[in-house]
Structures are given as structure tokens and as C-alpha cells.
Design goal:
504 residues; alpha/beta; Rossmann fold; Biosynthetic Threonine Deaminase, domain 3; 4 domains; 6-stranded mixed sheet; 4-stranded parallel sheet; 20 helices; 42% helix; globular
């Protein structure tokens, strides 16, 4: 299997457009993990992503007739930019179908390189369906973003460079996975040239299509995918990439959004460059691997795969970083509603820094406070805080991993609503585009009163929304049908402790 791709990778003549990217040391993260961590800097490509390699290699393999008919692709952004630049370089007309949730920075970059952009759907899969329709209607050649041998071989040149740049032993390489093109190409090459080097695929935990396939021993389609890391938000692993990966990788690691945000900060501190979430995914997986295995003194490589993110998204990334690094903990603490309670509570915290403190009067008995604290990056320190407070008679709930608490409650004002009878609460991810909220309200059509609403723009491809509605129990089934028809990802948070403590 790896041997069949070796020749394709060695024969990829892409360097009149793509560049050989450096393999940089990451001294700060190396010191923190007690390993030698290296970053393969694909964020330094002309399109700020490795995708230029596969797209250009694919175009070079097309016949003159195919190039004359134009090419089309579906992409959330990075493949689009790679294909647009490659097409411009070769004088080929390119049409790119992109989800409407694609960050504006990627859409504009594609247009600047002369490609025609068609925005449709909310996901890559919807865009891909439309792109293939254009192939049938207009006879253009479809250039897949990952599931194609020539594309895979182009991405595999990253591994060829890596092993040439570092001749010493490499213990493990961590590679991000969306559709699997980069990981398949790199794993095929690495396992042929240095079979002793471990290769780990890294996926977002809410878009882990490869892990699902490996667990089921067949390709599966995820019912929905998170799109925080839109560059790897793919519902099903590619057919060819899966065939390669199941024979070449040593495991799959998943990372959440907070862990990706922490990895973005790590890369910034070592390189002064800001990657996109998918670009930092492999480092998040590397850190998780070190934490779980306790390995030290190893040489570990992560692929900084891309740096195409909207500037206004950095606010959310920054807010999530401390939690992602396990350096901030969030607690709900019940204290007596009496003079001196706050001072006594703060005294128990000692010299710990308070990062957030929220409170609103509710009754004369108890006060529920929302407090953020700086802690050491391990669960033992969080547990010590809980143990200290509970030992003094306080009721404490650790909400550090509670999505509603992190994304909504900490930003909301008001308090309990005793008049909001039959209130149920849902957390949504709305596609970040004009009309998404109107579509939601139109579906509800005034059937139920909206008793609570919180939305913040995170600069991401979707908006995070918390909604309270007054819905009689006998009408819950009717509401479920409407929400399913709406098509936005949602979670029932009516029993969420953060909501119960502060808003119900």
C-alpha cells in the first residue's frame, strides 16, 4: 500500500508554485511537555495552507482537453484557494462551490485569485453535491479536495520534505484529518520510508469521521458535524483515504474546541503566527498524547496545516484558551445571602486570581455566584478548590466543562424568572449568515413565547445561541418536529445545572 504512493509523491512536480516549508523548533511547548516538538509550517504556503500541493498536482495530471473545459471544486476554503491559485498559474478557468458558512477571508481570497465563487448550503457535503451537478451540466472536471490519488500524492510531499529535513529518529507525527488527504499521503510515505515512526490522525471530537469509521470497520456518515474547525468539518472520510489510512496510521486522537484554541496560543507563542483551528488541531492532539502517555524525551512533529481565519474570530479563541489549557476553572457556588459572605468566601481562595465573578440577588436565603478562578493545569488543583470550599460548608458545582456555562451564562444578566412557566431551554448552532435568525423565528411563527435569548458573534462559521421558550408539555412533540425541520444542530439544556442555578 505505501509503496504504491511512493512513486506518485516523488514524481509530484509542484515546486514552481508550492514552496518547501520549514520545520521549526517549538522551544516553549517543548519545555512544557519535556519532549522535542517540531512544527511543519504549512501555514507559510502561498495560500497559507498545504492544500496548494494536492490541487496543483491534480491539475498537472489533467489533459489539455480537460483543462480547456475548466475545473470545479467544492471547498470550505483552503482547497478552494489552492485550486484558484493553481488554475490562475496554468490559465485554467475555475469555479469553486463554497458553503455559505465559509469565513469571509477565504471567500475573498478565492475571488482575488480569479476563480468564480458559488455559495450554497451550510456544509461541505451540500457544496459538493452542487459542484458535481455542475460537472454533469457543464462538462467541467471535478477536482476533489481529498479523495483522489493525485491530490493525496501532492499532499504527501509534506512527508517527503519532513523526513529529508530531519534525518534523526522521529517518534511520532501528528496529522490533522478532515477528508483525510493530507494524512493519507503523509502516512503512506512515512510508513514506507520510516516504518518505525508512529503516525497519529487528529480530528475534532465533533467531526470525527475517521474515528467513527475505524470503530465501525467501515465508512460511516456522521449525522452532523461541528464546524468550529471548518477546514476539517467533513461528515464522511474519503473512500480512497480510508483505504490508505486503515493500513498506515497508529491511532486516532480527538480534540475539542478549547484544546484547539490552547494550541493556537502555543503556536503563536513559539512562532508569532496565528493558525486557524484546523491548523492547530495536530498540536492539540500531540499535547493530548503526551498527557495520556506521559512520554518524555521524544521527538514529536505536528503539522501547522493552515492559517486562514477571520480576525474577529480571535476574540472567541482568546476567551477559550485558558480553559483549553486547564488554567481556568468555572464554579457555581452557593453562599449565604448575608453581609460578609463575599469577603469570607474570597478569603478561602487565598492568593488564587479570580478571573470572573457574577451575581444577582434572588432571595433572602442563598446566593448563587458564578466564579472563574486561575488554577494549575491539572484536575487535582480544581478538585482541591472544590474540596476546600465544600469543607467549609459551601455547595459547589464544577462547570468548567459545561458548554452553556462557558458560552452563555457568564455573559448573561438578569436572573431567575418565576413568571416563565413551562420554560424549556435549547442551545443551538445557527449558520453565521444573514437570515438565520429570521428563519428560526419564522419556523416558530409566534407559536410559543420566547422567554430568554442569548447570542454572541464569535467570528466563527456558526453562531452559538441559547433560547428559552414557554412550551406546555403536551406540545413538546410538536416543537421537536419543527426543530428537526429547521435543520440547525441543537441540544436540550433544560436540565443543565448552569441554567438551573442562575436563570430558571
Amino acid at each position: 500500500m505505501p509503496q504504491s504512493y511512493l512513486k506518485r509523491i516523488l514524481n509530484a512536480r509542484i515546486y514552481d508554485l508550492a514552496v518547501e516549508t520549514p520545520l521549526d523548533a517549538a522551544p516553549l511547548i517543548s519545555d512544557r511537555t519535556n519532549n522535542q516538538v517540531l512544527l511543519k509550517r504549512e501555514d507559510l504556503q502561498p495560500v497559507f495552507s498545504f492544500k496548494i500541493r494536492g490541487a496543483y498536482n491534480k491539475l498537472l495530471q489533467l489533459s489539455e482537453e480537460q483543462r480547456a473545459g475548466g475545473v470545479v471544486a467544492a471547498s470550505a476554503g483552503n482547497h478552494a484557494q489552492g485550486l484558484a491559485l493553481a488554475s490562475q498559474h496554468l490559465g485554467v478557468k475555475a469555479t469553486i462551490v463554497m458553503p455559505r458558512t465559509t469565513p469571509a477571508i477565504k471567500v475573498e481570497a478565492v475571488k482575488r485569485r480569479g476563480a468564480k465563487v458559488v455559495l450554497t448550503g451550510d456544509t461541505y457535503d451540500e457544496a459538493a453535491t452542487h459542484a458535481k451537478k455542475l460537472v454533469e451540466e457543464k462538462g467541467m472536471t471535478y477536482v476533489p479536495p481529498f479523495d483522489d490519488p493525485d491530490v493525496i500524492a501532492g499532499q504527501g510531499t509534506v512527508a517527503m520534505e519532513l523526513l529529508r529535513q530531519y534525518s534523526g529518529p522521529i517518534d511520532a507525527v501528528f496529522i490533522p484529518v478532515g477528508g483525510g488527504g493530507l494524512c493519507a499521503g503523509m502516512a503512506a510515505y512515512i510508513k514506507y520510508v520510516r516504518p518505525e515512526t508512529k503516525v497519529f490522525a487528529v480530528e475534532p471530537n465533533d467531526a470525527a469521521c475517521l474515528k467513527a469509521a475505524m470503530d465501525a470497520n467501515r465508512r460511516v456518515t456522521l449525522p452532523q458535524v461541528g464546524i468550529f474547525a471548518e477546514g476539517v468539518a467533513v461528515a464522511q472520510i474519503g473512500k480512497e483515504t480510508y483505504r490508505v489510512l486503515r493500513q498506515t496510521i497508529d491511532g486516532v486522537i480527538t480534540a475539542n474546541a478549547d484544546e484547539m484554541c490552547a494550541a493556537i496560543k502555543d503556536i503563536f507563542e513559539d512562532t508569532r503566527s496565528i493558525t486557524e483551528p484546523a491548523g492547530a488541531l495536530s498540536l492539540a492532539g500531540l499535547k493530548k498524547y503526551v498527557a495520556e502517555t506521559g512520554c518524555e524525551g521524544k521527538t514529536l512533529v505536528a503539522i501547522a496545516s493552515g492559517a486562514n481565519t477571520n480576525f474577529d474570530r480571535l476574540r472567541f479563541i482568546s476567551e477559550s484558551t485558558e480553559i483549553g489549557e486547564k488554567r481556568e476553572a468555572i464554579f457555581a457556588v452557593t453562599i449565604p445571602e448575608e453581609p460578609g459572605s463575599y469577603r469570607k468566601f474570597c478569603g478561602l481562595l487565598g492568593k488564587r486570581s479570580i478571573t470572573e465573578f457574577n451575581y444577582r440577588f434572588a432571595d433572602n436565603r442563598d446566593a448563587h455566584i458564578f466564579v472563574g478562578l486561575q488554577v494549575a493545569p491539572d484536575k487535582d488543583d480544581r478538585a482541591e478548590v472544590v474540596q476546600t470550599l465544600e469543607g467549609k460548608g459551601y455547595k459547589v458545582v464544577d462547570m468548567t466543562d459545561n458548554e452553556v456555562a462557558k458560552l452563555h451564562i457568564r455573559h448573561m444578566v438578569g436572573g431567575h424568572a418565576p413568571q416563565a412557566n413551562d420554560e424549556i431551554v435549547y442551545r443551538f448552532e445557527f449558520p453565521e449568515r444573514p437570515g438565520a435568525l429570521l428563519n428560526f423565528l419564522t419556523k416558530l411563527a409566534g407559536r410559543w413565547n420566547i422567554s430568554m435569548f442569548h447570542y454572541r458573534n464569535h467570528g466563527a462559521a456558526f453562531g452559538r445561541v441559547l433560547v428559552g421558550m414557554q412550551v406546555p408539555k403536551k406540545e413538546h412533540k410538536q416543537l421537536q418536529g419543527l426543530l428537526k425541520d429547521l435543520g440547525y444542530p441543537y441540544w436540550d439544556e433544560t436540565d443543565n445545572e448552569a441554567y438551573r442555578y442562575f436563570l430558571s
